[in-house]
């Protein structure tokens, strides 16, 4: 029965192939079938989780390729961590498929969108399914490819295709680091299967320097995919893609792949304190960095994008300080409420046809379902008590406080304050207040779009309950489930960090209400008092400009240089060879026409000339003929006489 | 005819006469302008040959008269050849209205 788990990634592959083959005839029916396929994956994933829960991890592998004494195997690993991810990915993917029926309705390449969605789902499921680094890497790259295809789905727009390229290139840089890290691991342990690698590392056979180097390099890959500083630059631009894409890929699943990678590699990461410190520092910095930028953004999707980067920073630093279960738990809750927020924003964009929050307003009256689901999602993200996000975020902050990481705790708490603030700035501007010019014609979205919103809203509210450490007996808690066999520090319940995190969240909401709801505090006090810093924020800390000048332009200049070198020297050499050939052939031609033809012509001319001269003998003069006749006779007679004499 | 002692007829005398006649005839063939003159000169050459033949025959083998026989043949041939020659000269005259040897050069290139 465990074999049926294989179907989970394979079903979307079939959907992908079918969508490609049917093409335009795919239509609405095909979209519904694809959605149904993803819907099938949900019970299968739950079934897998159930199997793991009752029987323990399931691992099925097979040898794929043997060369010399290197053996590469492929396989499937279903344990707590991967089955949790399977459940998350299949639920969110199903809901996005359902949502896209309404959102992408009427698009000219509707079928291709679903093909890409299916391919992405298959790759993501395969990624969490893998039992070795090679399979993970293959699916990692596939997922990156799907991200490129989907961001640039509306490739007629120059900005979209540029964003797709940017995403692919930036994550590629991280992937190079990851590949080197994987190779390091492979050459030092001889295998890429998770269990074997972890065993080799923990047994102490590998030097700690190599472990640190390999893990930092693997983290590079995670930084690229999960948009950690400085590789975060692609995620805001990726908002050029359709909103379902943003919800699925850039909120819930693909960006979580980096966190999953670090989580999966936790046994070897925890062996290297330096790497853990690096992860924690980068994660914390990313969290606060992105939150500060989000505060001044005016595009609804960009706010959510920076929020995603910030929350990913949370997950990373949670893993970096050792709160493995808390980090993964936050991944789960974040997937639900961020997908909800993105789909909600898609609903808003669909009805108001704009993405600037300044043009919206007062939408709560026209779009009630969207409004309340969005509010639930925002509350969850802000860590409002009793909602899912509260439990996961609180666990992380509590862990930091417990283990003496006070700097990280303070930064994390401040970031939570900023998170609450910018989310509610968004809510009060978009959904309340006077209707803006776009709000006039707003209307609620169709059922295919609101059902996912409601579903995710419910999940965002209650999904946290599976993770509460003290509600269920330790055996059933999710922390135990996903930790598998690792011995991790227990998550204790401490009232102090909980109070602080609740407080900062409420202060943020209050401040937003004052500034944007009641408008008691003027909206531009920040602008007036710290104008230079505001400019820095609006320009995203000038990171894109820096990247453009420091990296992009030199690369293009270098490419031009090589191009000119190629044209002038290499092409010049080839042209030279051509010219020399032509000259040689001309020389041969001279020889041929001069000497050979000359010889032939000379012969002909000589024949002609000699004939011309010889015919002069024919004078027709009879006297002449007779003279010659007698002369010869005389000579003959003389000859005869001489012969007789001697 | 009275035989005079001390002056015998030698073969050489006859040969000298025939050579002289031959040369006169040759001179005529080569230099004369009139075709009839050339023909007459050719006859002269033939007669010189006759004398040569008869002289040799009567001095070396008087029994066998091969030379004299040959001479008869030569006379016959000469006669025929003159007839043919005259016919040719006549036709040339009819064509060209001249018998100057320098004008009869149709075989010129």
Which terms summarize this structure?
A: 646 residues; mainly alpha; two-stranded antiparallel ribbon; 2 strands; elongated; B: 109 residues; Helix Hairpins; 3 helices; 0% strand
Would you mind describing this structure in some detail?
The complex is a heterodimer of chains A (646) and B (109). With 646 residues, chain A is mainly α. Chain A is 75% helix and 3% strand. Chain A contains 26 helices and 2 strands. Chain A has helices at 7-22, 27-55, 80-103, 110-129, 133-151, 158-189, 194-202, 208-225, 234-237, 243-252, 254-264, 266-269, 273-294, 300-320, 324-352, 363-366, 368-382, 388-402, 406-431, 447-462, 478-483, 495-517, 525-529, 531-538, 543-614, 622-645, and strands spanning 58-67, 70-78. A two-stranded antiparallel sheet of chain A has the order 1-2. In chain A, strand 1 and strand 2 form a beta hairpin. In chain A, helix 5 runs antiparallel to helix 6 and helix 10 packs antiparallel against helix 15. The longest helix of chain A has 72 residues, at 543-614. Chain A is elongated. The relative contact order of chain A is 0.07. Chain B has 109 residues and is mainly alpha-helical. Chain B has a single domain (11-96), classed as Helix Hairpins, CATH 1.10.287.3510. Chain B has 3 helices and no strands. The A-B interface holds A 615-616, 618-623, 626-627, 630 and B 26, 29-31, 38, 101-102, 104-109.
Task: Describe how the helices and strands are arranged.
The complex is a heterodimer of chains A (646) and B (109).
Chain A lengths: L6 H16 L4 H29 L2 E10 L2 E9 L1 H24 L6 H20 L3 H19 L6 H32 L4 H9 L5 H18 L8 H4 L5 H10 L1 H11 L1 H4 L3 H22 L5 H21 L3 H29 L10 H4 L1 H15 L5 H15 L3 H26 L15 H16 L15 H6 L11 H23 L7 H5 L1 H8 L4 H72 L7 H24 L1
Antiparallel strand pairs in A: 1-2
Helix pairs in contact in A: 1-2, 1-4, 2-3, 2-4, 3-4, 3-10, 3-15, 3-20, 4-5, 5-6, 6-8, 8-11, 8-13, 10-15, 11-14, 11-15, 13-14, 13-19, 14-15, 14-19, 15-17, 15-18, 15-20, 17-19, 17-20, 18-19, 18-22, 19-22
Chain B lengths: L10 H21 L3 H26 L5 H31 L13
